[in-house]
Design a protein that fits this description.
InterPro entries: UDP_glucos_trans, UDP_glycos_trans_CS. With 482 residues, the protein is an alpha/beta fold. It is built from 20 helices and 13 strands. The protein has two domains: 287 residues, Rossmann fold, CATH 3.40.50; 171 residues, Rossmann fold (3-Layer(aba) Sandwich), CATH 3.40.50.2000. Helix content is 47%, strand content 12%. A seven-stranded parallel beta sheet has the order 3-2-1-4-5-6-7, sandwiched between helices. It has a six-stranded parallel beta sheet with strand order 10-9-8-11-12-13, with helices on both faces. Strand 9, helix 14 and strand 10 form a beta-alpha-beta unit.
Length: 482
Amino acid sequence: MDKEQQPQTSPHVLIFPLPAQGHVNSMLKLAELLALAGLKITFLNSDFVHEQLLRHTDVLSRFSKYAGFDFRTIPDGLPDEHPRAGHGFMKIFEFLESTTKPIFKEMMVNIKPRVDCIIADGVLGIAVDVAEELGIPVIQFRTISACCIWAYFAVSDMIQAGELPIKGKEDMDRLITSVPGMETFLRCRDLPSFCRASDTMDSTLQRISQDTRKNFEGHGLLLNTFEDLEGDILSHMRTKAPKIYTVGPLHLHLRTRLSDSSRTLLDQSSNSFHEVDRSCLPWLDKQPKGSVIYVSFGSLAVLSSEEVIEFWFGLVNSGKRFLWVLRPDNMVEKGDSIPVELIEGTKQRGCIVSWAPQEEVLGHGAIGGFLSHSGWNSTLESVVEGVPMICWPYFADQQINSRFVSQVWGLGLDMKDLCDRQIVEKMVNGLMVEKRQEFVKSATKVAKLAKECVNVGGSSYCNLDRLVEDIRSMKLNINLSK
């Protein structure tokens, strides 16, 4: 049977991501992997997200080849003009609860054919609540690292141990000892950003802690990671949730399982909410091997104009070539006119675009390093291509990812909580010149492990097959119980 055709008896899986770029991107890749395995997939986006995908991608034609693949939409409750970026993005959870949840429940009651399994974003408590109420098996998918999930899980333990709240800036380098597996290197400043709340009853901190505890219940926990990267932390997690499916890096896993022709098309496609500017690729073609530092702070980070200028000076003063993704909404406010030395320095050695085809960029031979916000998708994409990183985390899971990149995996430098031109210049030269050989050696080793895990017989390859079989068993059990 052609993998892209699925029989009438195939399980019907609904996939529901948080309406944010990183979440939708990785869950679309998971959806395509499950469609390749012959499952019927309904992918539920917010109206706003779906409109962005239609505007900037070929998502409908790309998924039309899979029999039974369907896109549905639902309102997220936010007004159209809401920026959906920066720390203000967290407001979306209130609207999802009040507006989206009742609509989702009605959809699940009436959808045909019946949904046999929901793969819900692990931060979407509304999806888990509705699934439980209607008796639909639910597997939760966390789009962040295992190390961050484990830290979220331990929030209540940190509070009980008196290690939270953080008492002030002078407290930031204090070691946290109540997260198993991280006792020797985790500092206050490395905790997920929500842990910086001065009140341990802070609503966001409590909600994330409670949602994460719920991730360890139910039918399983699905992670975009791999055993050779986060095995030590995963062993701790499995003492609380035995059924964990590690199936990442998803973008590499998908690329590996697709046919050669489909893989070529995938390289030209994206799941971006932004217009991709491919003009940076011909520019990269003209640069020497390993000479360019790629700079991107993802889809949600919002920088002040002062921070942008400091980064810019640091990049220009480093004397290195750079490709910088600077979104139009990247700055809170518009600063003064740009100093002439920055304009001239960029003309000589730089390229600035509003959005780049990141997987292709990181895979380009001219790239020698990645100055990143340490979002999990970006981190994995850099890991896969063997590109060392400078980490400047913005919020949420990014703080802890950056600590693991630098301290545990030896893949780069961590400059969290710092932003001035001298530091940026020093970090760029440290990554690209002074410590380049040791970082490239570590990054090459981990990239090899990533590729092995998604090939036949690898841990992620086998775990995806196990996930598919478990979902098929869910449908069988539902039919037998009727």
